[in-house]
Design brief:
Helicase, Ruva Protein, domain 3, N-terminal domain of MutM-like DNA repair proteins, 2 domains, 4-stranded antiparallel sheet, DNA-binding, elongated
Length: 263
DNA sequence: ATCTATTCCTGGCTGC
DNA sequence: TGCAGCCAGGAATAGA
């Protein structure tokens, strides 16, 4: 599942193909993925030139000379350059130099055109990568609830998903159900440090390929080899040797060490 | 304000 | 080998 490091890797691998290039034509085939109308979206971007490729959290924006093409990969979305279209290909954006393709078996992702940034997007939290500590602390402390729920909430902070939250909480020795009111300033400092460390390392490793995640050239990442708790229920904890436990928190499978991460 | 449950969807897995 | 049933989950949404 694409989270911040995977989305960053996709952006880095697709940008060189797209910057400054002009869209010759486009076609969209999934009303679920492309909600603004299939024909209308294709017409809106035809002839436009890509001025910038940006990421905020898990959101990708292709800034055009007029409006923007927005992409969210959801669970199984892929942006591919010059790939073979398959049965889950929902969009083709053609350039003189090649074709940008969007594939997504589950269709939880989006590929839509916007004239301007939607209001709801402007209220998203700051990007988890590079957010300063005071902003991180302030945004966490402005809410109540369990730490895992808040870290997953894109209005609080943008970019974290289930894998990196579990890894981050383990690295910081924080129980996923800890109420945020009980997180000390020092513990928050540790969470912030570990978050930067883990995200940077995961980007270096080109993301985690758990099921079928790949970048724009079809290359998988290998950060999954460095996962310490995610997907490791029943296996020994790398720190204490006790069994990693799997529970449900915020409707998500949650992996943690009951001994290292005390409630 | 914050919680939980539900919805979207299909590949992959289990068990017969 | 086939197939039914279940599960995974990002984010929007509804209801408590």
């Amino acid at each position: 599942m694409p989270e911040l490091p995977e989305v960053e890797t996709v952006v880095r691998s697709i940008s060189p193909h797209l910057l400054g290039r002009t869209i010759v034509r486009a076609s969209f085939s999934s009303p679920l993925v492309t909600r603004g109308g299939l024909e209308k979206t294709a017409e809106s971007i035809a002839g436009a030139t890509i001025r910038a490729v940006r990421r905020r959290g898990k959101q990708i924006f292709f800034d055009l000379d007029r409006g923007m093409l927005y992409v969210h990969l959801g669970m199984t979305g892929k942006l591919l350059w010059d790939a073979e279209p398959g049965k889950h290909t929902h969009a083709l954006v053609e350039f003189a130099e090649g074709t940008l393709q969007y594939d997504d078996p589950r269709q939880f992702g989006r590929m839509e055109f916007f004239d301007a940034l939607p209001e709801a997007f402007e209220r998203r939290g700051p990007d988890a990568l590079g957010v300063d500590f005071e902003t991180f602390l302030t945004r966490l402390k402005a809410r109540r609830g369990r730490i895992k729920t808040l870290l997953l909430n894109q209005s609080v902070l943008s970019g974290l998903g289930n894998i990196y939250v579990d890894e981050l909480l383990f690295a910081s020795r924080v129980h996923p159900r800890t109420p945020v009111s009980r997180i000390s300033r020092d513990r928050a400092r540790l969470l912030h440090e570990k978050m930067q460390e883990i995200l940077k390392l995961a980007i270096e490793r080109r993301g985690s390929s758990i099921s079928d995640y790949v970048d724009a050239s079809g290359t998988p990442g290998d950060f999954q080899q460095l996962h310490r708790v995610y997907g490791k229920a029943g296996e020994p904890c790398p720190e204490c040797g006790g069994a990693i436990r799997r529970v449900v928190v915020a409707q998500r499978g949650t992996h943690y060490c009951p001994r290292c991460q005390r409630a």
